[in-house]
Amino acid sequence: xxxxxxxxxxxxxxxxxxxxxxxxxxxxxxxxxxxxxxxxxxxxxxxxxxxxxxxxxxxxxxxxxxxxxxxxxxxxxxxxxxxxxxxxxxxxxxxxxxxxxxxxxxxxxxxxxxxxxxxxxxxxxxxxxxxxxxxxxxxxxxxxxxxxxxxxxxxxxxxxxxxxxxxxxxxxxxxxxxxxxxxxxxxxxxxxxxxxxxxxxxxxxxxxxxxxxxxxxxxxxxxxxxxxxxxxxxxxxxxxxxxxxxxxxxxxxxxxxxxxxxxxxxxxxxxxxxxxxxxxxxxxxxxxxxxxxxxxxxxxxxxxxxxxxxxxxxxxxxxxxxxxxxxxxxxxxxxxxxxxxxxxxxxxxxxxxxxxxxxxxxxxxxxxxxxxxxxxxxxxxxxx
Length: 384
Ligand code: GLA
Known about the structure:
It is built from eleven helices and 13 strands. By secondary structure, it is an alpha+beta fold.
């Protein structure tokens, strides 16, 4: 166990934790706003994430603390309600709530969390807190739940306890990604395939540009996109937009009333096709040909789905201009991060070109770093 987290735990609670776990954040390579339309996504896990030192208690009390926040929050596990828990503690508390709702005998725990993911950057810091909690508690309570079940419980915590209507991508990415692979997930059947992502062997790097422009999913834009998709599916008499085939897109668009719906539908249907195209390229070992799909995804999110921002557009344009093979916003959009697939020798230049473009437009300085596909959530019970 890493000493710093262990010592923070001992300093707060006066005892050693029963184990330490880590759940990563993610970037999505392609497939945005498709998961809640029963479609396809292709995320990879990051090396950054949330760690948790956790110990069982003999009563039903939850004590949660974070090295990034002040104080210890105390909650009774058998009295968990949305109204009783506010702020970041709702994520771990929501997971305990979801486990108990599902009938699992889960009592009290002491937690200390520590994270190195930038918050509100669209890298799934919330899912990482949920997933590290779910994995730790399921192991400490010997629940023997598989990771897909844990991901669904973590999503339930986010949807029903925290109250944000996200899809299933982030929790699956955090719990099920493997090193050097992207995870192709069918959000309807939950079938998955690990696709090799040999960035290094192809002389490529994935640059992540955090535009540092904060985004808030709770603002309602995400929920309004979801509602528009449900409305369009209803108008097209399909159970979800996944069921509109690319070949039937034009006819579907003609049958919809004028307004935002046709553009929302066009994004979802073409984005699903782009994910499958990207997956086929990865299977064929042609990672260097992903660029045009990334660019097309960004254009579609910008023009049809209206979830880009000035900062994201500037980052994407500057990256492509400086030699990236392709670039796009990643995650929900409305600010947050962009990714760029770049030849390794150009990574620094591309990052500098993006910084320069921000500077010229007097935008707050972005932060860039390169990422490899890391392994999903991990950790273990260390004793007792
Ligand atoms: C957020 C949600 C995901 C997904 C993306 C957009 O990250 O948590 O479920 O919908 O936005 O692709």
